[in-house]
Amino acid sequence: MSHPSHDLINNHEKAADEGDAVAPVSEAAAEQSVEHRDEQAQQERRERIRDEEEQREEQEEERYYEEGIALAEVTSEPPVERREQPPAAAAPPAEALPPLSAWGTRLYTVSYLIFFAIWGTLARLGVQALTTYPGAPVLTSVLWANVGGCILMGFFIEDRNIFREEWGRPVEDATKLQSGQQQPRRQSSTPSAQERWLKKHKTVKKSIPLYIGLTTGFCGSFTSFSSFMRDAFLALSDDLADPSILSTTGSLTVGRAKGDSFMAVVAVLAVTVAMSIAAFYLGGHLALALDSLTPTIPFRFTRKVLDPLVVLLGWGCWLGAVFMAIWPPHNAWRTNAVFAIVFAPLGCLFRFYMSLALNARIPVFPLGTFAVNIIGTGVLGMCYDLQHVAGIGAPLSSWAFDPLASPTRGSIFPSTTAELEATARSILVSCQVLQGVMDGFCGATTTISTWVAELTSIGLGTSRRRRFAWAYLYAAVSMGVGLGLLVVVMGSVRWSRGFDKPYC
């Protein structure tokens, strides 16, 4: 038996339920479609803006490489007035520092270069003394200094924390959320954004005086291209000293066949270049591995404390070295270090300004670094010749004694005259000055660390094949011209009259 009233009620409730079920779903679907279209439009707009920004940055990068902007630390733009952006709105205006004038920037940059050139030269001489010992497996005394300087150079170039505050501007390192909130400093967003920030950061920090001092000043003076070329020539001429050999004739080498000299110079070139490049990459890897432990130097501390302090220390140390060269506590100090640190700042400043003037002219061939390496190598070759010529830097062959061997020489050598004693002292001083020019001026003028940094970054923005071609060409021309120049300058003396033992 059917119940019409009951069925009517059920049908009505079912219709109501269906109406309640269908109507909201259709409305929600319609509203969701509108929201979806809005979100899609916003997403497309954001993507279009991002694409335009990336295209604009790519165009700027292309112009960056076409105009020949810096390839390494010494090719940064000349120090000019930097105007720091005002701090974030939340920061009080009192925290802002006045902009640094162009004159002040140049003063701080030169002071850092002087200070670190002195200590870089001392570090190189110290490493050479530590690694020269009987039985040393590597006879090129400057190898380990070049390796150490390249490690530091790679570290400073890849580091992203020490100079994070840059010129006091708020740091934007591509670690922002879409909502605009800042994430912790070492979290990254998209790789492209992080890469853009890194490129910008590396470019900006090349204009910071402290960074220039650490890279151009210390690393550039710690390493030496001219000493590397000198050791290559001495290996070729069979004059590379071996401290394991004891000889009464003054020679510290063992004669070898002429064909073996070719293998010797190839070994010096290959080992030095390979180890220097490996050390440079090791320094970069260390910077990335120690990223979470590397501190940031506060900009206010740098501006208020470090910069003025280095002005006093840089010029004061240089003036003190000059006084010590005139009145040395011990005469041997002149040979070992004093004259070297007197001439080192001159070489470092010469390299810095030559690189600024010439490096950007040929983007794929750093002409400034090439010029200072060749000039310094040539000067070292001439000084080495003079130091090993009797009567200039070596004692005369007619002397049967050393008039400076003992303070009681008057009783040991009764025939020694005052004129002979004065001649011996002048030869000793000239030998010491020539040694100082080679270790100081030539060592700080030429650099391996910058040279290696340029080899690894040359031709950026071009194809990989062209990059490698330019890098190999730059390396081959630098070593070929440097060694060829020493063959002419030093070889003309070595293979004509021979080298005499220097007096210092």
TrEMBL record:
Query: A Gene Ontology CC term for this entry?
Result: plasma membrane
Q: Which reaction does it catalyse?
A: fluoride(in) = fluoride(out)
Q: Where are the transmembrane segments?
A: 107-126, 138-157, 208-229, 262-284, 305-327, 333-353, 471-493
What residue ranges carry the coiled-coil annotation? none
Q: How does it sit in the membrane?
A: Multi-pass membrane protein
Q: Where is the composition biased (Low complexity)?
A: 86-96, 178-194
Report the protein's function.
Answer: Fluoride channel required for the rapid expulsion of cytoplasmic fluoride.
What's the protein called, per UniProt? Chromosome condensation protein
Q: Specify the species.
A: Talaromyces amestolkiae
